Amino acid sequence: MITPQSLRIAVIPGDGIGEEVMPLGLRCLKAAAAKFGLALELTEFEFASCDYYLKHGDMMPEDWHSTLSAYDAIYFGAVGMPDIVPDHVSLWGSLLKFRRDFDQYISLRPCRLLPGIPSPLSNPGDIDFWVVRENTEGEYSSIGGKIFEGTEREVVIQETVMTRIGVDRVLNYALNLARSRPKKHLTSATKSNGISITMPYWDERLKALSAERGYDDLKIDKFHIDIFTAWIVLNPSQFDVVVGSNLFGDILSDLGPACTGTIGVAPSGNINPEGKFPSLFEPVHGSAPDICGKGIANPVGMIWAGQMMLQHFGFKDAAGAMMRAIEDVLAEGASHIITPDMGGSTGTTESLGAAIERKIL
Amino acid sequence: MITPQSLRIAVIPGDGIGEEVMPLGLRCLKAAAAKFGLALELTEFEFASCDYYLKHGDMMPEDWHSTLSAYDAIYFGAVGMPDIVPDHVSLWGSLLKFRRDFDQYISLRPCRLLPGIPSPLSNPGDIDFWVVRENTEGEYSSIGGKIFEGTEREVVIQETVMTRIGVDRVLNYALNLARSRPKKHLTSATKSNGISITMPYWDERLKALSAERGYDDLKIDKFHIDIFTAWIVLNPSQFDVVVGSNLFGDILSDLGPACTGTIGVAPSGNINPEGKFPSLFEPVHGSAPDICGKGIANPVGMIWAGQMMLQHFGFKDAAGAMMRAIEDVLAEGASHIITPDMGGSTGTTESLGAAIERKIL
Ligand SMILES: CC(C)[C@H](C(=O)O)[C@@H](O)C(=O)O
Ligand SMILES: CC(C)[C@H](C(=O)O)[C@@H](O)C(=O)O
């Protein structure tokens, strides 16, 4: 990808703590842009939120696709107010639609133990791996239905759909990513012993691709998802690049960050590698209604997502500065600065985000 | 259930370390039977193993159902030799067939931090919860297929199937179990924000049942499976009874035991509560080809499964003695007795199993 001169970014705060962390994310992005002379054009949208839904009866306007297609990327907070709008309505009306309709078929999620954050594991070792998650098909199929509704005979069916194209492209992406890393180690999440059709297919394609394309230089292994989660806790430093289906990638990319202390720090890139559609960058945490309004949401996931966005477009210096700023502030670990989820006392979204912003400048 | 005078038990060691831990499980069961005057009739079968498959081209003889129906319970080791027989063939030809055809619709799995075993968590707190797993339907449906095989257009589909009957009975079982516990707390695993048909149905049935049947005395909550796995690591002592679909229960019942130090200790009851068919008791760990033949497999999962079997049939004293024996030996934690997965040095399957046997007698 050729690094563009400027970036047009659609900003969507969404709901809950999405609205609270977004301002800090933007301040850090602007700080990096100012320092490194990048032109960022930031346009905020109020759609893709439950507030919008309550006003308009839909999560987004009809022309959302063409509106957002004009942007290089989407900088996204979080969606969901489950007490008011069912989660599957709000999510399938926004985030999951973006992922599918903008063909953001790679979800890329770093899992890294940052300096200064206490891990819940007594011997975490050096946790530093990438989760590569299939992001458009699989278990998140949205097809299926209900029959004999409201009776004893009621049956509900949902289909997991895997396509050759969908599986191969995410496996190839993960294989290439593993090749670019010093450890050259790829671990695939499966469940082919129990889920007897789609999961053996996933295994089969990994075997075929790694043979066909000559990935002999890589160490490739696989774990069933049940024991995989056990290994994440028992020995997380064994992982380098991890690849999984939509659901398994979802699970591993919450569990992994939990082992690094808090999921509040984890970012996520929803990437359309060809750049045909905008990619989307967001924190892994959701709208977190339980802590919303308290001003204590961890802004690091949002800021790190912005860092990934700059990195994605090749703005290496700016991205590097943002990452160093995050690491430095966390390493200092001042308890009046860092948020409670990381062991802070009086630290807030504002204090932590502002401290990172200052380090960037 | 009326406690029977004697038990007829079908013994199926299976493959790999299943064959190594089974003898110790049997010795401990026999010790408990001798001490408390129970009549146990133990009949060993070589089918439901990959060795049997290699000889006969099938995992089990045609009349397996009628043969095993004559027993009160099945005491089961582990199945799988993935280098020789694909896992979905061996498992769907044995264990998963038992669960479905003997309508063992409850999988019951304790997750408890035993004295003396080091947890990988630095602050595990008091981990002590039950996983109640749906065991016959859901994601383990075995229906679906492949189209456009071998071409670019290849599509593979697997259907998750939930029935009103299947969902209600496992939720009711879990609700009742929660009611019998001091904390009276049930947590349901869901993923209704992403898996948009079956999982909202699961949530809906839990809501309906807990309202209909007046479970106001219980604390009932739910987590999406991704954040659920994170909470298991960050705060496992919050859980009391956990209920999940076939797949989610599978994941939580490996991850939970990992947080208690090793999945080698965890047992599993596959229960047909009506007693129309035999229930099956097994360790949670599988055949573990990687450590097979070394004599170091942890026998506690197998022994504890035997303990659950006696408990299930109401042999409380014998079951109590077995549990105390396990706890005492682990609490002593002699490194020449306990197996390496629990921090032992020269301990083996034999030394640990024999120590527990001696304590029972
Ligand atoms: C071996 C496998 C099919 C099985 C399952 O997935 O149910 C196992 O993991 C378990 O938990 O009993
Ligand atoms: C909010 C939810 C639908 C989403 C997902 O399951 O993908 C989230 O958990 C994530 O990981 O991005």
Supply the CATH class of the largest domain in chain A: Alpha Beta
DSSP, total strands of chain A: 12
How many domains make up the coordinates of chain A? 2
Task: State the distance separating the first and last CA atoms of chain A.
Answer: 27 Å
**Class by SSE composition of chain A:** alpha/beta
Largest interface between protein chains, with number of residues from each side:
A-B, 66 and 67 residues
Order of helices and strands of chain A: EHEHHEHHEEEEHEHEHEHEEHHH
Shape category of chain A: globular
Helix content of chain A: 25-40%
Oligomer: homodimer
User: Helix segment count of chain A?
Assistant: 12
Which sequence of strands runs across the widest sheet of chain A?
A: 2-1-3-12-11-4-5-10-8-9
Family (chains A, B): Belongs to the isocitrate and isopropylmalate dehydrogenases family.
Protein name (chains A, B): D-malate dehydrogenase (decarboxylating)
Pfam families (chains A, B): Iso_dh (PF00180)
Cofactor (chains A, B): Mg(2+); Mn(2+)
